[in-house]
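Model it.
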Amino acid sequence: MNILLVASAFNSLSQRVYAELSDRAHRVDVVLATHGDDAVREAVREARPELVIAPMLRTALPRDVWSAHTCLIVHPGPPGDRGPSSLDWAIATGATRWGVTVLQAKEGMDAGDIWATVPFDVAPVGKSELYRNEASDAAVAAVLLAVERYAGGSYKPLAQDDHSVDIVWRDVFRQERRRIDWRQNSTEAVLRKLRGADSRPGVLDEFFGDEFFLHGGHPEDQLRGRPGDVLATRAGAVCRATCDGAVWIPELRPRRRPGGPATFRLPAALVLGERLTRVPEVPSPLELPPRRRTWADIRYRHHQDVGFLYFGFPGGAMSTDQCRRLLAAYRFALTRPTRVLVLGGTRDFFSNGIHLNTIEAAADPSAESWANINAMDDLVEAVLRTTDRLVIAALGGNAAAGGAMLALAADEVWCRTGAVLNPHYRLMGLYGSEYWTYSLPRRVGPGTAERLTTEALPVSSSAGAGMGLVDRLVPVSPYDFSAEVERMAAAVATAADLPERIAAKRARRERDESVRPLADHRRDELARMHRIFFDPTAPYHRLRSAFVRKLAGGPARPLARAEHAGAATAAL
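Modeled.
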């Protein structure tokens, strides 16, 4: 079918819906509703879609569009749920079961006939992580079912005035409901509020007399203090006391002053700066005892012949410091007596590459860009040069740009079936590094590597497996991913042919090095990146600032962005 996606952003869900529909031979185009109703109307006229789908929409479709075309809206709530803050309410009320419903657009928010609905379990995680995982799985299943039903021509959608539909209106979840009373709210209550707003909009609160939005929350079972006090810092996060415990808050965003520039999320300790002079920094435990409840963005453990190096950074971005700490942890993991080493293995983002927010906030963004890409390269090189054991990248969630190349540096890439890959850089006006000119062609061939990096389109895990980006698909729920990876890794570690596989990879690395040393790839890639970073007129600086500050920009048809961004870097 010819399908047009209308979205407020080409976000993780919109990309996944695009990739999954494309995998099924549908012709899919995308238009951003943020460019206004006329942009949507023009896209409809040009694409002449048989079906319009809105996977993520913050504004209403134009009446003349939905009255003339079948338009399906993806709503992150069960049948009968109405309102703009569905997932916020699910988390705030402690719901254990929720759903995604595909509705036909009509007058009245979320009031249209129901084409499909798929339930999902509500995991005790932040809203953004829930959205990208359990809710995304349900949304894609519901969209595919609705498309199948529509294509069949005989399905009659369920009207919401049917007796089986329980209508519940839920208002916008405002900051008044999110406010934390540090003296009265328990740790679990604080966590629920923080998780319900972890990426958007954050919880408005005060630190040292100034207002900030709090993003993310994790429990702490040992540190204690007067409720509301900042007890410690660790790896950029701050620990704050509750009435019965404490929580770790990884990121803060200063409240925007009237008329001031847009603010953005950053590591909490970086935002608070000198205010934390008297706050102790506690070490980040690499190996955690069983049942310990604390926050650490990098952890290691091993079981028999398998080592597991877990890492999870907010938004998947990796700053210079995070790259260096992960490299130190990787080197530690190599000292352990294992034959298989698993990277990642958690249920959300694997990595999205360099940290554009910390770069934007730096006194010298060009110099910080350079430091960050070199730190990423150091990490990727360490993985590529590991020849004494098998290295597996386990992607429970999405990977993009340098994060995708970090995964490709491993011997095998295992990918949960819900993950989306973006193995390209050009939408940010970058040539890219992380040894992609070595890793990507050796997996998919030069022709496909060129296509992936110039078309700059999202790739589903299944499509990635078909072209060689992914070695094994892991068709499990987000909740079960880590356990399944551990089971699979144990089987690899006990396989009789593992010594031969390790010997073969060592020989292949030596052979590749003799043909073209890794140092040559790095030198050529970084020469191009250096010209971009230190050229104040390069598109990268404008694109980075707009991305970080969530400013409107770019074309209304994002699938055409690769052509424009590619032209910006073609001569570099």
